[in-house]
Amino acid sequence: MKKLTVKIQPTSSRNPSLTGILFILSGGFIFSIQDVIIRYISGSYPVHEIVFFRSLFAILPIFVIIRMEGGFHLLRVNSKWYHIIRCLLIFLSYTVYYLSIAVIPLALAVALFFCCPLFITILSVIFLKEKMDKKGWAALFSGFLGVLVIMGPGLLTGIADLSHIHYGPFFAVLSGFFYAINAVATRKYGIHESGSSLVFYPILTFLFLGGILWVVMGDGRFATEENKNIVFLLRRWTVPGTKDLFFLFILGFVVAAGTFCLSMAYRIANASVVAPFEYFAIPISVGWGYLFWKEVPGGFQIIGILMIIAAGIYVMKRKQRNDS
Question: Among residues 178, 240, 206, which one has the least CA distance to residue 51?
């Protein structure tokens, strides 16, 4: 899944494009480890408990990143309401994404999330008044058609009978949609906010909302036979064992390390060069899915994944050309 970035001062490099690509690949690989860990422990804990502990253990390394960027004075904000709305969007995006990877193959969840560049393009046309040519609309249509291909022919049947609908794919797409809203809002309202504030306050939000959900549903009162689709959300809070606590501790450092790598990639190299390499997360997730759960995408699913990748890269390249 694509993650938050911070503003780290760029380092010198004889080949900034290659260095940026290496950072983006490293970030994608590191965040794929997060997905594997969350998928592994998703059968034992509710998603908001995982988010809570993941964020708790991320605070210390995030503080280190803030110091590297310039100091804690960068946590001052210019727009309080922008940060509140943005933090809520990120919390929703992460939560529904984790719900998806718990119930559908990892590669499909990641691929469906990566329809977010398509949503970003549409929202930019609507709210930022960006222009779109016929080739751009065709690429968007192809990308969303790829989403339907991945979901499979049972989609329409599921929609007709809501009692049998499988929400996993919809959670992944919804995560990309929430992320896209956040990206467009940041482009319009967040240009004067520091990278440190854009990273730190979502972490606090995860802790706060995770605690609220613990109070409201942490006893498992809502986890019934009628809502098996979202049992990962409604499950009872339990005290993590030593091994799982170690995994949650690792998650915190994964967030910091992945954030650092993605930040450096976009600071060192042009976005048009490194952004397409974010799709490296998809083949990595295919590998993890096969290694740990023997998951192999079907033929039509592979076609759908390729359609999303091709459309996403095209709209990203188009955006860079328009900005240049």
Answer: 206
3-state helix, strand, coil in the chain (%, to 5): 80, 0, 20
> At residue 262, what are phi and psi to the nearest 5 degrees?
-65, -35
Asked if 224 and 242 touch (Cβ cutoff 8 Å), the reply is: no
**C-alpha span between 79 and 139 (Å, rounded):** 35
Q: Hey, what are 153's tokens? A: 């022919």
| CA 114 – CA 309 distance, rounded (Å) | 8
H runs (alpha helix) in 190-298: 195-217, 231-234, 242-268, 271-274, 281-293
Q: Which residue has the tokens 């210019």?
A: 78
> Tens-of-pLDDT digits for all 324 residues of the chain?
555 444 444 444 568 889 989 999 999 999 999 999 999 999 999 999 999 999 999 999 999 888 888 889 889 998 899 999 999 999 999 999 999 999 899 999 999 999 999 999 999 999 988 888 899 999 999 999 999 998 876 554 444 444 556 788 899 999 999 999 998 998 888 878 888 888 899 999 999 999 999 999 999 888 876 666 688 999 999 999 999 999 999 999 998 888 888 878 887 888 778 888 999 999 999 999 999 999 999 899 999 999 999 999 998 887 777 766
Q: Are 248 and 238 in contact (CB under 8 A)?
A: no
Task: Please tell me the distance from the alpha carbon of residue 235 to that of residue 200, in angstroms, as a whole number.
Answer: 28
Q: 87 is written with which tokens?
A: 């933090």
Q: Which two tokens stand for residue 309?
A: 């990748």
* Tokens encoding 281: 């997360």
70: left (phi over 0), alpha (psi -120 to 50) or beta: left
Measure the CA angle with vertex 4, ends 113 and 85; round to 5°.
85
CB 274 within 8 A of CB 265: yes
Per-residue DSSP letter, 251: H
Full-model pTM: 0.89
